[in-house]
Write a structure and sequence with these properties.
The protein is globular, with a radius of gyration of 23 Å. Helix 10 packs across helix 17. A hairpin with a 7-residue loop joins strand 12 and strand 13. The protein has a seven-stranded mixed beta sheet, sandwiched between helices. A six-stranded mixed beta sheet has the order 12-13-11-14-10-15, with helices on both faces. It has a two-stranded antiparallel sheet with strand order 5-6. It is α+β, with helices and mostly antiparallel strands. The protein has two domains: 248 residues, Cytochrome Bc1 Complex, Chain A, domain 1, CATH 3.30.830.10; 201 residues, Metalloenzyme, LuxS/M16 peptidase-like (Cytochrome Bc1 Complex, Chain A, domain 1).
């Protein structure tokens, strides 16, 4: 579902020919390691705040002649008005449809002609523009970024087909990708009236209610320099890049409306079921979740290790039981979504219609054993080793570092979030892991269970899990009536 809120401007063959050799080198880039045991350390970078509130984050990396940037405007889908979910996502997509002196075609051709790429989108808490260009084109990259954010055309002729396409993306998912929808229904059910319940890409019903005037009003109210952070990483001189960005953004206005405060959501304290009837389905897709943790939670290392063991790798407890031992599914996983306030924890899988109850029972039993029996020393060591091995892989390229810089600034985290992670992993003990499991993972009795499947075949079986609410897959919303 997250793919619905993103689109890539430059896909021309020219890009491959220009960047092909460079990308080979990019893949060989080495992660920055310190001498003390191979722990990842952030390379030096400079943070600059302009008088209008815009924040610039600049990290030089001269491995390859590329630059990558991530620009985020605080807000995102959580600031969409009630009943208008999808405004931030549509606005982000419309930014690409013409800006400054360039219409949609001219903008795409300009990016493609230099082998660059720009992508826009929205998350729960930001609207973003990300891109990569050859270092020699850094001035053009800044010009295009400034145009997209400050001078979007926002034209009716581009808006109508774009909105129709977003609706079709949702309908296509309902036709052929039901597994991509379980967390959307799940978030709506778990968060209730909280802003995090709003689907980032909207729903068929909410998108139909959104007008171009709504997008223009949202742009004026929610997009401005005081919400902006720009992270740039790559082959440039800091003084030169600072000058380019300062010239481009120092005169930009502030957002017209204050950024709404988001309160912490309330955890679910009982078990309930939401059944979405998909009459033609031959499989059931199920999701179970509750409120989890925020991005800033200090137990990050313990959370990562524990969740990896439960459902974060192929040999996890969930996947072993549902796929390897029983053959009930081709895959099962668990995940923490971690925005500024506590997001959701989820576990999900799918199975044949006739084995729906058996598979759900198996998943809940794994969760119960996880709480009751915890993990042993061998399993803990395996989980720590796995997470430690995966961590550097997200910190290799300039694009990845730009993302990390933006993440730290967006959530007001310091560099210890990166520099201290390896040590924190090493400090995860059995006692800490068991305490984290008890505190942060819901029990099987405190879950919202979402099932998409053939209601006539599974409705009665689902009643044993708790009160059952029903929707139709064809309903134009992801939230059940209250």
């Amino acid at each position: 579902m997250s793919g619905m809120s993103r689109s890539v401007v430059s896909r021309a063959q020219h890009r491959a020919s220009v960047l092909g050799a460079v990308l080979i080198l990019w893949g060989c880039m080495q992660t920055a390691f310190a001498a003390d045991g191979g722990a990842v350390r952030m390379p030096p970078y400079e943070r600059v705040q302009l008088p209008n509130g815009a924040v610039l984050l600049l990290m030089e990396r001269h491995d390859v002649p590329l630059i990558a940037f991530q620009a985020h405007v605080r807000g995102g889908a959580a600031t969409d008005a009630p009943g208008q979910a999808g405004v931030a996502s549509l606005l982000a997509a419309l930014l690409e449809k013409g800006a400054g002196a360039r219409n949609s075609l001219a903008l795409a051709e300009t990016i493609a002609s230099v082998g660059g790429a720009i992508e826009t989108g929205a998350t729960r808490e930001s609207l973003y523009v990300a891109g990569s260009f050859l270092a020699r084109d850094q001035a053009l990259a800044v010009e295009l970024l400034a145009d997209l954010l400050q001078r979007p055309k926002l034209e009716q002729s581009e808006f109508e087909p774009l909105r129709a396409r977003h609706v079709e993306f949702i309908r296509a998912a309902k036709d052929s990708s039901l597994d991509s929808l379980t967390d959307v229904y799940g978030a709506a059910a778990v968060f209730g009236d909280h802003p995090y319940s709003r689907p980032v890409s909207g729903s068929e019903g909410s998108l139909a209610r959104i007008s171009l005037a709504d997008l223009k009003r949202s742009y004026q109210d929610r997009v401005g320099a005081d919400r902006l952070l720009v992270a740039v990483v790559g082959d440039f001189k800091t003084s030169q890049m600072k000058q380019l960005l300062t010239r481009a953004f120092s005169g930009w206005r502030r957002a017209a409306a204050p950024l709404p405060a988001i309160a912490a959501p309330t955890k679910v304290s009982s078990r309930r079921v939401l059944l979405i009837d998909a009459p033609e389905a031959v499989q059931s897709y199920f999701w179970a979740g509750n409120i989890g943790v925020a991005r800033s939670d200090p137990r990050r290392a313990s959370l990562d290790v524990a969740n990896t063991l439960l459902g974060g790798r192929f040999t996890s407890l969930l996947n072993t039981e549902l796929r390897i031992n029983s053959g009930l599914s081709y895959g099962a996983n668990s995940h923490f979504e971690r925005p500024g306030q506590p997001g959701f924890w989820e576990m999900s899988s799918f199975t044949q219609t006739e084995t729906t109850i058996q598979a759900i029972d198996a998943a809940l039993q794994v969760l119960d054993r996880f709480h009751r029996d915890g993990i042993d020393a061998a399993l803990l060591a395996s989980g720590k080793s796995y997470v430690q091995g995966q961590f550097p892989l997200a910190l290799e390229t300039s694009a990845q570092w730009a993302y990390q810089l933006a993440l730290l600034e967006l959530y007001k985290l310091d560099r210890s979030y990166i520099d201290g992670y390896s040590a924190a992993l090493g400090g995860v003990t059995l006692d800490k892991a068991r305490q984290t499991i008890a505190e942060a993972f819901p029990t099987s009795e405190n879950l919202t269970l979402v099932v998409i499947g053939k209601a006539a075949a599974i409705r009665e079986g689902l009643r044993k899990y708790g009160p059952v609410s029903e929707m139709k897959l064809s309903d134009p919303t992801f939230a059940a009536p209250r």
